[in-house]
Amino acid sequence: MVRLPLTAEQLAAGKRLGGLLRSVRADSPLDDIARSAGISPETLRKIETGRLPTPAFGVVVQLAIALGLDLNHVAAVWQDQADLSAVS
């Protein structure tokens, strides 16, 4: 199966997700959050910078848990329906 290229909207959503995660993580060590989520620090770095704009759902769930984020808020940020600074 051939994967279609990501759309501009998907890339923008990935950047919003990365921005949210980066802002919530703030001064917490990237390694600690990655370990809590069961992913490598490099994977978290790629998600935060938008280089991995469509992480697996399970990864998003684990990151939300590790950062204490509500998944509804994460989804709203992904859909560009919530402010990144309005963390719930």
Q: What attributes characterize this protein structure?
A:
88 residues; mainly alpha; 434 Repressor (Amino-terminal Domain); 5 helices; 61% helix; globular
Describe the structure.
There is one protein chain. This protein has 88 residues and is mostly helical. The protein has a single domain, classed as 434 Repressor (Amino-terminal Domain). It has helices at 8-25, 30-37, 41-49, 57-67, 71-78. The longest helix has 18 residues, at 8-25. The protein is globular and about 35 Å long. It starts with 7 loop residues before the first helix and ends in a 10-residue tail after the last helix. The mean pLDDT is 94.
Low-confidence stretches: none
Shape: globular
Quaternary state reads single chain
Report on the biggest sheet. none
Rg, nearest Å = 12 Å
Q: Write the CATH architecture name.
A: Orthogonal Bundle
Strand content: under 5%
Q: How confident overall, as mean pLDDT? A: 94
